[in-house]
Amino acid sequence: MMNFPTHRALKVWKRNFLVYLTHYRPSLVGNIGEPLLYLFAMGYGIGGYLQTMNGMSYTQYIAPGLMVTSAMYSSVFECTFGSYTRMTVQRTYESVISTPVSLADVVLGEILWGTTKALISSSVMALVMMGFGLYTPGAGSLGLFITIAMTGFLFSSAAICFSAVAPSYEFFNYFFTLFIAPMFFLSGVFFPLDNFHEAVRWASLAMPATHSVNLARWFFHGEGGAGLLHSGLFLVAVGTGLAVLATRLVRKRIVI
Amino acid sequence: MAAFALLCKCTRTPRRAALSNVSLGMGRPVIVEGRNVVKRYGSLLAVNDVDFSILDGEGFGFLGPNGAGKTSVMRMIQRLSPLTSGSIVVDGKTAGVDDRNIKSILGVAPQDESLDDDLTVLQNLTVYADYFGIPSKSALDKAESLLNFFELNAKRDEKIRSLSGGMRRRLLIARALVNDPKILILDEPTTGLDPQARMVIWEKLESLHRQGVTLILTTHYMEEAARLCGRVAIMDMGKIIALGHPATLVEERLGSVAAELHTDEEMADTAGKAMKDLGVTFEKTGSRYLIFHPPDTALEKLKQLGTVTVRRPTLEDLFIHLTGRGLAGGG
User: Fold this and answer.
1) Rounded distance between C-alpha atoms, residue A145 and residue A122, angstroms
2) What is the ipTM of this complex?
């Protein structure tokens, strides 16, 4: 049986990239608009009322978290609405697996594409932040983008798991309101969780986004990180586990 | 010991191929062979212990009503669906073991249109060729010759949604040909098309068939089966209930004459009773009676009960004869 993905996953990635090229402009406008909105609303809006956080401006404090949550949202949108459409309505998966490209290749290709979307969106955000003097590329940049890639991989895999069991588009409301939105607010992007009740801190540590933010903040500012190795291992292990699960769930849905 | 094993391996394949030739009494080798094929979806038995041998270069049709199991058989040959039990061998490769190699020699035009809506007509072919690992230059050449062959060149840069139903179906078949498949699998290739679009597709398929491509198709249309298939397997409730050349099959089972009797509602029961008394074989479908092997004497009497039409029996008649139900009906 063809259970392990091969290099053919890249053909699936290529197909999605080709489609992206036909509508990258509106997609990029979204990528630029979103960080600007957050920077103004949260950074300058709320930050205007705050003193410094950990010795930096509030805008600087939230910048690395915004970068990885933007990666999270990008990959999750791509691998819920996008992948679900290809999996069901358009029957793209079925026609691809009628060729030597296997289902494991398809799922890995989709995850890698979701990861790419995360990298695109975070790169645009980095450029916008550079324009505002909030970010200076340096020694940590490679680590930062590896963190973003791991984040994209993990959330793409999680989103495909959800798409594989979703009966309709409405089902994604659960995913966004029960998982993604809490992660956005409770992963330490906007405020440190140190002063919260222990239960909240434990819940937060179980959230992948917390570890992404933790790593990103370190690579972004070169300070603040604790348990970096733990966070890195968490992202790799959970990401890989979810990718394997995604393949199983999609197989269960498509191959009957 | 190793030499012995090698010897066995060498002699096994040719002997098997030869055996199949002899058993079918034809000169061609078997290209798709199914043995004791079973497909179960939960408690539903969709394919019930079916055997089939499809010959290299022939046109082979699976006929039957919706739910008869023909699409399930096709999906198992295509390696989209695992077998519950039994075995399928395609071009010497075992299903479930060598799926990637099986898929590389198949061209598939599925029943549900699965063209890539996000891509243009040309990209649908080149991207699909990439899935087969065909280098981009040869993929483009192949795509262009296919667009010419299927008369789609004028639409090459259009999106799929701007194509007519007939054009989509042609593109679907064109896409199935990008890898020069040995076997072309078509699930109801012309269902839902107008007669003209259907004719165009039949001509293209006949031309491919002449070039030696094996055609395996499912269809509801008897005319389609008659034109494209050297042999048909009629399926019902997961079983193959008849197998052979379409016209010969009909001739053998139903002779050369069948009759239809149309009656009024109130005459229906009387007519049924009268036919039983006459001792003729018949089936009732809707408001008409289909009479098999009608003797001339019986025809004279039946004319008093309603309108009688005498014609050549068709594959559809044969199906009704075998199952007591029509082909188009669900089941």
Assistant:
1) 8
2) 0.90
